[in-house]
Fold this protein.
Amino acid sequence: MLAIFHKAFAHPPEELNSPASHNNGSNKPKPPQETLNQFISNHLHNSCTMSFGHAAVLAYVRPDHPSSLHQRLFCGVDDIYCIFLGSLNNLSVLNKQYGLTKCTDEAMFVIEAYRTLRDRGPYPADQVVKDLDGSFAFVVYDSKVGTVFAALGSDGGVKLYWGIAADGSVVISDDLKVIKEGCAKSFAPFPTGCIFHSEGGLVSFEHPMHKLKAMPRIDSEGAMCGANFKVDKYARVNSIPRVGSQSNWMEWDQH
């Protein structure tokens, strides 16, 4: 999967952008269109893409051998789109809890959970994601309000990476080669047990009351890359995460 969001709609941590990507003589980050073209060329016969003007693009690759353990799902409902990787062990329980039918798959559930939180959520978003049991990663794009919401499970069963393109756009993918070539040194593994939102930024859903600390990352060539992020158990946020307005439902003060 590949998701690219213009910098006006997604604001990743500054530490994800490596100065080494802009030094003379080193590989440079590519424009988003070049990264998308490469991704499509790698999957000519089993991929589909959706473009939302200059705001975002989502690309999905159908699995060669579908299985419940390594699913790749893509769906859209009412201008909300979701790419889901992996599986949820407690999907039937979650569907019942949200009043959804038994045939609702993981991607459809995530859209419904997101929509519930956005419109009338009684719980903090981190608690909702923490209730998901399984190996998973997902990216949601709400094209109506330009909101990005991504998450990666805490067990490490699914890999996800993110980086910064030449124009400052955020690139998210499970394809490490595409991320490396598209973002040069300005990339890193997406942190496990975390959620990223356009307004709320990067937050640990396992430890939402603690800030995340950027950890410098050096590659085998000795170059500074995009930072890893880990929970800082000695630094706490100033307020309890709470549901915000209808369009900024996950916005909270972390300073």
